[in-house]
């Protein structure tokens, strides 16, 4: 029956109605080639954490390959906040004078990276996706003794797949990895638990939070944790109070007492209002700082319809129902169900189902712009 309901919704959409797109931070200002980046949330996260940056001309160049030297700097940032001390000469035969020499030695001292049999590091060589995964596994505290020899690639792939490092990455792992794809794998690593050692039985020991749950690398290193809730207010409007809005680059999500500091683009994004989002934040006594871009929960469903008749048709068929505590808004101000009856041609209605269970939680009515009255000259 549920399959039939969604088939009906697809038929409705095919007849000309539109499904609400997942809200996203409009951050074209980050880089001049922002629209060319496939993994925008992952890039935004690493930029905000200070792990990656763009070029002097304002571009990110997402398809450029990543070098071994660049990876050493990024991984150093994953492991420590402090800049490493100056490298002692002679660690590798080919790193003297390299801009990343300090980072390379820092990572080498911790067993995260290594050179070749001739004692070279080859800092300018590009790195493959599998090689990056190997470095990230080591940074997470995984045992690396199985990552050598003829079967090293199989061992790396097995562990990386188990931890989810390759999530969202479907390309050949033996190919050189691009900047945007490297951000994807690194962001995946940030979601993984940090191993601090191994017990006598060989079992991994994890860094634990106050609830005795394993800490992700994102929390362990950057004190950033996920927060989920419905966006109730930003610089555009405050759904809790008619005619109000937040001042500055802030949003408020339900269930939290303090506002979240976000980018100017996120604060001005009207499409986030009423959406259930997950964001990553560092918590302070008076505010919460968001890193990266808020993302709409995958299970949420949003549908924009041309008017109350289309909404009623979906409700009559049973494809959706109105929850008992559904909230109504008209032009982003609190309203009632009576606003549906007052809709006229050109008005639209958007329904939001936060849990994706077919029960509508919020209804947003957008009134069509009022036609301007003709001037006296035009009427003559």
Question: Can you tell me about this structure?
Answer:
The chain is an alpha+beta fold and 380 residues long. Helix content is 28%, strand content 19%. The chain is built from twelve helices and 13 strands. It has a six-stranded mixed sheet. Strands 4-5-6-8-7 form a five-stranded mixed barrel. Strand 7 and strand 8 form a beta hairpin. The longest helix is centred in the first third of the chain and has 13 residues, at 2-14. The protein starts with a helix and ends with a helix. Residues 1-28 have low confidence and may be disordered.
Poorly predicted segments: 1-28
Q: What level of helicity do the residues show?
A: 25-40%
Q: Record the strand order, biggest sheet.
A: 1-9-12-13-10-11
Number of strands: 13
Main sheet makeup: 6 strands, mixed
**Shape assignment:** elongated
Which percent band covers the strand fraction? 15-25%
Nearest-integer average pLDDT: 88
| Rg calculated over all Cα atoms | 26 Å
Offer a quick outline of the entry.
The chain has 380 residues and is of the alpha+beta class. It is elongated and about 80 Å long. A six-stranded mixed β-sheet has the order 1-9-12-13-10-11. Strands 4-5-6-8-7 form a five-stranded mixed β-barrel. Strands 2-3 form a two-stranded antiparallel ribbon.
Tag the structure with descriptive keywords.
380 residues; 12 helices; alpha+beta
Give the topology, please.
Layout: H1 2-14, E1 18-19, H2 40-48, H3 68-79, H4 101-109, H5 129-139, H6 152-163, H7 179-190, E2 195-198, E3 204-206, H8 217-222, E4 225-233, E5 250-253, E6 260-261, H9 264-267, E7 276-283, E8 288-296, E9 301-305, H10 308-317, E10 321-330, E11 333-335, H11 338-341, E12 348-353, E13 359-366, H12 376-379
Parallel strand pairs: 6-8, 10-13
Antiparallel strand pairs: 1-9, 2-3, 4-5, 4-7, 5-6, 7-8, 9-12, 10-11, 12-13
Helix pairs in contact: 2-7, 3-4, 3-5, 5-6, 5-7
